[in-house]
Design goal:
Two copies of one chain form a homodimer. Chain A is α/β, with parallel strands linked by helices and about 375 residues long. Chain A has three domains: about 70 residues; about 180 residues, Rossmann fold (3-Layer(aba) Sandwich), CATH 3.40.50; about 80 residues, Winged helix-like DNA-binding domain superfamily/Winged helix DNA-binding domain (Arc Repressor Mutant, subunit A). Helices cover about 45% and strands about 10% of the residues of chain A. In chain A, a hairpin with a 2-residue loop joins strand 11 and strand 12. In chain A, helix 8 packs across helix 9. The C terminus of chain A is likely disordered. At the A-B interface, helix 7, helix 12 and strand 9 of A face helix 7, helix 12 and strand 9 of B.
Amino acid sequence: MSDVGEEERTARAALTRIVEPGDETVGRWLRQTAPVHLVQALFGGRDMSSGVSKEKFQGLRMRAARTDIDGAAADLAAIGALGGRFICPGDDEWPQQLNDLGDGRPIGLWVRGRANLRMWALKSVSIVGARACTEYGAHLAATLGAGLADRGWTVVSGAAYGVDGAAHRGALAAEGASVAVLASGVDYAYPRGHTELIHRLAEQGLVIAELPPGDHPTRSRFILRNRVIAALTRGTVVVEAELRSGSLVTARRATELGRFTMGMPGPVTSGLSAGVHQLLRGEAVVVTDAAEVVELVGSIGDLAPAQRGPVLARDLLDPVASRVLEAVPARGGADSRRLARDSGTAEEVAQGKLFELQSLGFVQRCGAVWELARRSVGATGSRRGGA
Amino acid sequence: MSDVGEEERTARAALTRIVEPGDETVGRWLRQTAPVHLVQALFGGRDMSSGVSKEKFQGLRMRAARTDIDGAAADLAAIGALGGRFICPGDDEWPQQLNDLGDGRPIGLWVRGRANLRMWALKSVSIVGARACTEYGAHLAATLGAGLADRGWTVVSGAAYGVDGAAHRGALAAEGASVAVLASGVDYAYPRGHTELIHRLAEQGLVIAELPPGDHPTRSRFILRNRVIAALTRGTVVVEAELRSGSLVTARRATELGRFTMGMPGPVTSGLSAGVHQLLRGEAVVVTDAAEVVELVGSIGDLAPAQRGPVLARDLLDPVASRVLEAVPARGGADSRRLARDSGTAEEVAQGKLFELQSLGFVQRCGAVWELARRSVGATGSRRGGA
């Protein structure tokens, strides 16, 4: 179920080794040139056609010269060994909303984890904020992460210390869906102290990156990573940020991309809330809990089909999802443990499928219980409340 | 300098004894009937013309029957003995913006203090919030009160415990202008614990009320008092308020009246900030300090003529104000103590006049120093910053 051939996939994988994330020049080339041709030109010495800056091209060629042309195949093998994959524009799993980044959209994404990124991202919110947050900020982020997860929303963040980590942990603790967007390879745990958290996210959620396996983060990669967080989600919530914090860049990027930008206020006497308040005096909306976030991001457009009934015919589901769906009782509901047992799948697999089924509009979540989605025929009034 | 005759003043004073604040029915009658005639009808048994509800009229007549028709003269004597006055629509000191209350505008205002209410109210902001505020709220209110006073703005509040008191005290501590709007007579200190504060406000600032001297507050009078606070000022800042707090009513009233509505955020975990956050999710703007308040309220319309040069010719100033203005040195400035000495007036009198002169655009304040206002000829760009 993909328009992407193996040659193109390998070419794009090779490009992620030598092109920095968000490189719009290369993005423009890729609109005009097939990835395979670009790779042949960069690695094989073939010349590029007109419209390409020589200087830029030479720089990339030098980077290519320092890397093995077969490195891409090795990277693809490595991600496979991690139980992951490399997805590209054109793949079914590619989140369409990343295309809003224009020529700066990722060349591809390295993904670890069982869930379908595209499905999870349909109903997702990012939570960002200070690494050196206060107890107050950590508490808010964890509570918000758990609250969004409880309402069936995917929590996206950057796996950093402070707010990021608390948000992921809150979502995981609520047995919800969470996606970490790294500024390094998906197997390169940064910060080191979050090795265990990132491992758990890869098991229970998703860990994604533009950089190939093994690659390390840099200062600029952190900043460019933020655009993926902003673009991937329906809205960004900033929980504690100083003036001139990187989180504010993410938030403003979200606004530019037409996403919702939200901030959780704090004491005006706290420097760690000053950036949030600055944002709230501009484009951002005050939110104080998960319900308010969902009310906002769930209210307009409604990308997520959950309340309009399934978008996919039931017989097009993959076999495992189909078995999990079969296991959901017609009345009442069941927790993921029982559904895993009744469908004969591992609980973690069942959970991932349940979130996908939710995004597709087949099931809905109420606390720990999953039940069949009620079709809201003509019930437009009830749609505003979100999940 | 008034269009109000003594008969009308006495009649309006008498009406404040029997008509509750904000009575729009009586306000409508007063558009059609001279106050003197209304009083004659209520106290003297004369009938009212058509368009008057009999039931309502009888109710007021019963209240009139329980009061002395000469009570108004006694009240006027009492306010005079307190060094105060009773001002009415049509008086030079009447703040025009109160007319935005329509038929609910006060019948008149009992005023204690030396300053000119109209002048002081030109550049005024109200600070409202919880009586049972936290230390955080009290700190914010005091700092904001002082900061606004430092910038030459008058701080208006209700003299209650908590946020109100802290705001007044902050303004007084900065030797600024502050106005208390009471829900009782101006000589009836409520709450009792604020007797000293209200006395200081009458000495250093202004204490005003719709109720005649000696009258006590009631629950509904507190609520109706809030509309005067909202209408009198350019904007209302809410500092800590629970959901369903009376301060939110004041804030919403301010919005309805086209004034600025602002809120100071706090921890989302604090019930005392929940009302503020609710407001901030609606009509109110986040502010975190006095500079941001002044930037907002000083930016549009600019009722205050401070930066456009005087609105009143210098030779129309009253003799004391004129002497104080003469004392301000052409270069540099002087504090109020020196200006009082050089103009031969009491320091408190000089201070009141200096705030009036500031409102009229003759002088400006920089910390403790008063100096002649610079005419900002064509300097529209600098006007946005406010005072």
